[in-house]
Amino acid sequence: MGEVIRWVGLAGGVSVSYYKLLGVDKEPFSTSPDPDFFYPTREHESALTNILIELRLRRGLSVVLGDVGTGKTSLSRKLIRCLKERGDFILHMVLDPCYDSEHLFLTSLVRNFGIHTEGHGPEDGRLHSLTVLDLKEALERFLYQKCIVEGKTVVLIIDEAQKLTEAAMEMLRVILNYETNESKLLQLILLGQLELHSKIMNLANFFDRISFKFVLNPLGYQDTRDMIHFRLKQAGYQGRSPLFLDSAIRLIHQISGGYPRKITLLCHRALKHLVMKSQGAVDQALVREIIEEDIHAGWLNPILR
Asked: Taking the model in full, what pTM does it have?
């Protein structure tokens, strides 16, 4: 414990000392969607491969649904990295699609895609003076120029798509009508929680435009185990003995329900406890101690014990 107290008190050297004690080079269980730590389960790999095919074929609309913490945002970051490596894609990602009006949504797209309209550049504050029709026509001209003339693929990725208003979704449906005889001009990917399904089903002619649809489910035990070991390896861990015993992983899987974000949070807390207790590995007792702390604090239902 003295060693732990010593490095906690060192300004600027905390992370280095913490990593050294664990035998890693970087944080293995960050909740930030770093593509290097994206563990490709069979489901995530299938979703990613299918989306890439849809984009190459310019099929138009792909929808990925999943409960909170199933890895939708991590999947999108991995997708973006793949597309940037190819060089012939123009990308824009919307992280929080809360727009009060169709006009505001279109203005945002025009600005973020860097579209010039007649007399107005993408940074021009006077874009608000353009009508919805003006903005749609500017977007259509941009898509034609980039896709047909320049041979590029324009991709719009919308995360948290369940927040889209009915008006915004109707606008997207109209934009998906911009096409040639062979393909769609805009490639749209919606990533949303499960309630997006009911929104889609309530909009006539939107469901029929979905070329690829997929639902991400929580991980099973084996994928949970593989994900934990994968992230440790990516962080530089090369120890001969595992940092997480199988008994601990089984309990982590049970408590997390197999949701990647919850798994990551639990593992991070387990490693902190491991360092503070100067233990060699995370065992079931250590994980249970964390669970008991949460139950006592009212953060976890005792029935999950």
From this structure: 0.87
